[in-house]
Amino acid sequence: MRKEILKNLVKTLLDARLHSLQRGEKIVQKIQSQGAQLQKYNTANDNKHNLYRFSNQNMVNTVLRQNLLGELLSKYFQSKILGTNAQWMGQQVRYLISEPIFKDSNKKLSVVVFVYNAFANQVAKTQQDGKVINNNLLLIRMINNISQGAESLNNLLSRHFGKKVEVEPIILKYDYFSSEIFSDNLSGNINRFGTFKKGYTRILNNNINATALPAAKSLQISNKLGEHISQVRANNILNALSSGAQILPGEFLNKGNVVWNLLNNKYLIGYSFEFAGKLPKAVSTARTLKDIRFSGTLKCNTSDNASVLFNLNSRISNISQAQKSNINKNGKFNVRIKLGHL
């Protein structure tokens, strides 16, 4: 009797599972659970391929060609510059890039890629504070080769795709503006320092301005953030400058480009850092080491934070996530990052 009951129960469960798979409920539940896990998750971060078409013809071939273009751009920007200051003296500092974002229509293909270099960014900030124009010849040469000349990268890709192609590299002010670049940089730093604990974690927290800070600093950050949001709402940095608002040096404001300012002058409200694997310099450490660090918040609802003295127009969190695997002589480790932006 008991065997018959178990047999019927297993059969019922299998039938229900097959039925849910056929209806696609498993995929829908997976997407919904991811959204619930990340609170108010902004799915725009996952849209790497935006295909504006009226049919699905040749969609697979289009995505394959876009993936090949993404690999080409990653090799194109895979350059290094030699550090010359005290921190980077004699080191080869490479450019970090994110996965390209494609916007494809019948007449045009736009490709946006984020680029970051720690040494070049530090030099640019120093020169900006000293009112000196940054002249990074390597990066300028790469960008000019993309957009200028008959044999530029844009023209070559346009002939290949049969329509206009525009590649737009955006130089990030900080590495944590992109979860992919941030995870890549953290992975490289773990190899460099041999660990993510103690000193390196303090450096990481000091370099990230989160709103969830001690009360002594929360009001100061809130006032600066409110002043910045008021400038962004004006939708024109020139108006903010002409109105007498104080702009601190080193903010990298591009006076004629609103999109640039929105992407480069935003604030990080929190991050989640997860490490799993084996440290490169810890020979005797277990391979199942796992550590999670969390700072700030991933929730972008300002009404829940009493220290923020203003309200935003949107309540949608801009949360992005990325994962980077690193294989070294002692084993392998993974770095998983979740970032919340305002």
From TrEMBL:
Main location per the UniProt record: mitochondrion
InterPro entries registered for this protein in UniProt: Ribosomal_uS3m_fun (IPR007980)
GO terms of biological process kind: translation
Keyword Membrane set for record: no
Gene Ontology annotations for the cellular component aspect, listed alphabetically: mitochondrion; ribonucleoprotein complex; ribosome
Gene Ontology MF annotations: structural constituent of ribosome
Signal peptide feature range: none
UniProt keywords, alphabetically: Mitochondrion, Ribonucleoprotein, Ribosomal protein
Location(s) in or outside the cell: Mitochondrion
One Pfam family named in its UniProt record: VAR1
Similarity remark: Belongs to the universal ribosomal protein uS3 family.
Name listed for the protein in its UniProt record: Small ribosomal subunit protein uS3m
Biological source species: Magnusiomyces magnusii
Gene expressing this chain: rps3
